[in-house]
Amino acid sequence: AAHDGASDANREKRTSRACLTCRKRKSACHLPIIDGLVSTPCARCKSTGQVCVIGGSNRGGRRVRKRTLDGSEYANMNQVPHMVPSPSPAAFLDPALRSDSNNAFARPGATRESSLGSNNLGMNEMLNPSDALGILAQIASNGEPSYHTGANGGSSIVHYTLDYPLIRDGRLSQARIVDLLRRYKHWYHPYFPLVPAATLDTADLGRTARDEKHLLTAILVIASRDLVEEPGVFVACSEYMRTLVSALAAGGPANVEAVEALLLLAEWTPYTSRGDAGHVGRGEEDREAWMHVGVALRIGYFLGLDRYSFAVKGDDVKDPQWQRKRLVWTACYISDRQISIRLGRAFWSRGPGPLTTLRKEDFPMLAPSEPGGEDFASIFQATLELTLLFSNVHDVLYSNPGNSMRSHLSGGYIKYIDDFRSAIYGWKSVWGTLTCSANLKATLLMSYDYLRLYTNAFAFHATVKRALAQDQSAEPMKQKRSPSVQRVFYNNVGAVGDARFIYEGLDAAKSLLSMCNTFVEPEKALRYMPLRFYLYCVYSAVFLYRARCAGVLSADEERSVRQMVQETINRLERSGIGSHHPGSRYSQLLRLLWDKVDRKEHRRAQSTATLTNPYRPGSDGPTPGSNASILQHSPDLNETMGDFSWTDLDAIGNFAVNGNNGNQVNDPVWWSGFLPTD
């Protein structure tokens, strides 16, 4: 009997439990029993090294199969946080519209057997990702969303969307926000690739709306700027953006995404483009850009982003966003310098740190995401180096009007311009062969040509200033008149000392306009470019107008220039959508300005040489040494150049619309017109 008892104790007892591996194989599961309790692993899992998990029992209890939930059960379901109902079926159809891990699909009429018991969240029909894919597959096959049939027989769509104020207020649907996000990514983002890829990912829209509301709203404002057929979309986005910016200016909470949002607004100036600025462009956008970049820099300094322009080390390396912050602060420097030079205002940003040379490897966020993708990092480095040259030219030649006047008279600027020309050519030799899309290559070359123009225009003005100074010293008793000088050169450009600078300035202006006319499609590229590329075209056309009035252009060259400017005007006009778009407004400005040439063509004098050419002694010009050999001031024979700077858009607009009588100029000394406003 004792032997039989020991045998019974050692005999393996059969259990009603089985592990998941054996249950899946439908084979016997030999689980060891220790002290009367079933333990793991079983013999099979122990021999194969698998994880042994004991499965639950499906016996007993009330089993629900293929039951349709009624309306009361839906009322008791635990609601998913951050979600509100939306009437748009498109959001239910697109899997990219799910906000985040908290999102779920409420699909009535298809419950599954579940063993979760009291821990069920009320969505028994979706237990894993495969269930969600099955729901989507069914929706796609049926072509319609799932409907819930309640106790009263009615039908209604049941789904959820992300929590965003414009959706909560019913002003935008989630499908519209996704459409605007994709529109921005395709048309606008390549020209200023500051927005992170995760923000532009529609599958991550829930996180973007929750954590980056400033940046998301700025994207929506810019993308809806040209939707003139749906004005309510832009109005809703811009009003909410104004509220957010007001909160930032009042000291509200902000992080790096708020700085990115303000920089986007400074580049595209969407408010003026859809506001009541008038039908003729006069630089109203510059105020908007100046204010936005100013607030961005203030927030950037407060957040300590300027630290990331130096070599990152210590605790900064632990910051998961340090690469993004370096990119944003460098973009702050570029926007600040570009806008400040345009306005002739002081710089706010200190820029990259001393002895710090930022290269494309310092901006991994802009590296190509796939083989053959756009190399935004190289384009960004090229733009940064070009901006550094812009800053140096402005600091040396244009920053101090008093020093500029003395440099004009003494000719001390020649060495500086020669040095800058060499640096500009060096930039072209490195980046002129960069391989990228045609539109992005055009923006780089337009910026390059404008820098050439900005540098060499200083010498053009200096030559005119010296000629005016000679005339004023020769006729000191004559009453000082508002300038109306024409034909300062009249085919004698080659006889002056700064001829090479003047020729290169003309070449730069014509090359920029030719680039715009040849390689930039108005409807598919120029329309979506940042504001500065419109203004580069405007500045070039205005400079050519001033050069034409001064007699720099020969008759044949003048005809070709007028045709080129007319083509630029047509392309600017085609790029505009509505009367307030920059393309429409600045095409009207140039048309009014160059129409003055046609109206006054019959008043041109046949003999208006003003500078004696020593290499053409038999010319029909005035006798050498006479006052007329310096300048002629006959108002009847000369066209008015205008008391405006070629970069002062407000003065250019006044002159184009009203002539010189429309300008409110306190100091009508014409030579100061070629300096930026200060």
From TrEMBL:
Protein's name in the database: Zn(2)-C6 fungal-type domain-containing protein
Positions with biased composition (Polar residues): 624-634
Keyword Iron: no
Organism of provenance: Baudoinia panamericana (strain UAMH 10762)
Domain annotation Zn(2)-C6 fungal-type: ranges: 18-54
SMART domains: Fungal_trans (SM00906)
Keywords tagged on the record: Metal-binding, Nucleus
GO terms of biological process kind: DNA-templated transcription
PROSITE patterns per UniProt: ZN2_CY6_FUNGAL_1, ZN2_CY6_FUNGAL_2
Ranges where the record places region Disordered: 604-634
SUPFAM superfamilies, A to Z: Zn2/Cys6 DNA-binding domain (SSF57701)
Superkingdom in the source lineage: Eukaryota
GO terms for MF: DNA binding; DNA-binding transcription factor activity, RNA polymerase II-specific; zinc ion binding
GO cellular component terms listed in the entry, alphabetical order: nucleus
